[in-house]
Structures are given as C-alpha cells and as structure tokens.
Design a protein that fits this description.
Blueprint lengths: L7 E5 L4 H12 L3 E6 L3 H9 L4 E5 L5 H15 L4 E3 L16 H19 L1
Parallel strand pairs: 1-2, 1-4, 2-3
Helix pairs in contact: 3-4
Length: 121
C-alpha cells in the first residue's frame, strides 16, 4: 500500500447516488479514495473535506482510452488499487421496447456494459 496503511478504494460514478454515499462511508472509515466521475465539479467539495485521502478524476467510463489513462494515473500517484466499486451507470425510460429510443439503448450499453468491462480490466 502506498503512503498509508489503509487500502485504496476506487469508485466510479462517485459524483451522485450510491457512488457518492459509498465514498462518504469509506472515507469516514479512514480509507484512501480514488473517485471518478464525468461531473468532477461534484467531487471537488468532497475532496476538500479530506484532501490527504481523496483524489478525484474526471472520466467517462464509455471511453476505453480515457479509462486506461485514468487507472494508470491512479496507480502511479496513489499506488495499487485494493478494491474497485464499479458503480457508474445510467438508465432511461420505462416505456415498452417498441417505443424505446435506440440512441438511449446504445448509451446504456456503452455505459453499463462496456464501461463496466473497461474499468474492470
């Protein structure tokens, strides 16, 4: 572990919802965090609360090159990741499939399936 005896927890989709709640719980327990989100401005205030244990990264899980770059940067700056909370995701509409929008389906697949795989790799 890098510069601390606490593990490094990486969390995608950390700017809201479950990702943000999970990050708050882990930092309360004293863990070091690498938080990732498309909306980094939402992470800035949280980082200010514990700057010595929270690093933030702007990242869109749909962009495999961006994901690889950010994870490499995390390991270079903070050390090996001990646990990944692969939380980034989204969903659209509750309409029947015949009324669905293919663009929204594509965005969901890119985020919820491909993004999950890119980050896990």
């Amino acid at each position: 572990m890098h510069s601390s005896n606490k593990p490094l927890i990486a969390i995608t989709g950390a700017s809201a919802g479950i990702g943000a709640a999970t990050a708050r719980r882990f930092v309360k327990e004293g863990y070091r965090l690498a938080l990732m989100a498309r909306r980094i401005e939402r992470l800035v205030e949280f980082q200010a609360e514990c700057p010595d244990r929270i690093a933030i990264y702007e990242m869109d899980v749909r962009a495999s090159d961006e994901v690889a770059k950010v994870f490499k940067e995390i390991e270079q700056k903070q050390g090996s990741i001990d646990a990944l909370i692969n939380n980034a995701g989204l969903g659209f509409g509750l309409e029947p499939a015949y009324q669905g929008k293919i663009e929204e389906w594509d965005q969901c697949v890119q985020t919820n399936i491909n993004g999950l795989l890119y980050c896990t790799q």
